[in-house]
Write a structure and sequence with these properties.
2 strands; globular
């Protein structure tokens, strides 16, 4: 995997600065309510999801993947399709497709992709909330290993 480390200073990227305050609050509340998470924790999930997507934008084709907790934030943000599309265009200049992998796949490969993802975020100077990334994965839903799909079937990225 090739990780982007351009000369730009990404350390000043703040998750709350990637979407407006009202949307941040709405998505945080939805995560808390629909996934039975404390509001503060739900806000951390959304922050990491936004930073993960920022890293995907800076590393096209790298196949970065979120942890199950971070994926909750991605899934919840995607539900507001207009806001998600606007976010993608503004942050990535393209739509960041979400392609779930088959559950219960190769655990070693999944863990390696998580490590690559955290490394890519750190290489950009982005904070990684380890508690949200180092959670055990369940083999019950697509949260097992969703990735930024660099080449969606039947479309362009």
């Amino acid at each position: 995997m090739s990780i982007t480390t351009d000369d730009r200073d990404h350390a000043d990227v703040l998750p709350a600065g990637l979407i407006d305050d009202d949307l941040f609050s709405t998505i945080t509340d939805r995560i808390a309510r629909e996934h039975n998470r404390p509001t503060e924790y739900a806000g951390r999930i959304l922050e990491q999801a936004l930073l993960f997507l920022y890293a995907c934008a800076r590393n096209p084709g790298a196949g970065l993947t979120p942890s199950p907790e971070v994926d909750l934030g991605w899934h919840t943000l995607i539900l507001d399709t207009h806001a998600y599309e606007e976010f993608c265009q503004r942050v990535a200049g393209r739509f960041l497709h979400h392609r779930p992998e088959e559950p219960c796949g190769d655990q070693a490969a999944y863990v390696a992709r998580l490590g690559d993802t955290m490394q890519a975020m750190r290489a950009l100077g982005l904070p990684v909330d380890a508690e949200l990334w180092l959670t055990p994965a369940d083999c019950s839903q697509c949260y097992q290993g969703c990735v930024d799909d660099p080449a969606p079937i039947g479309g362009t990225s």
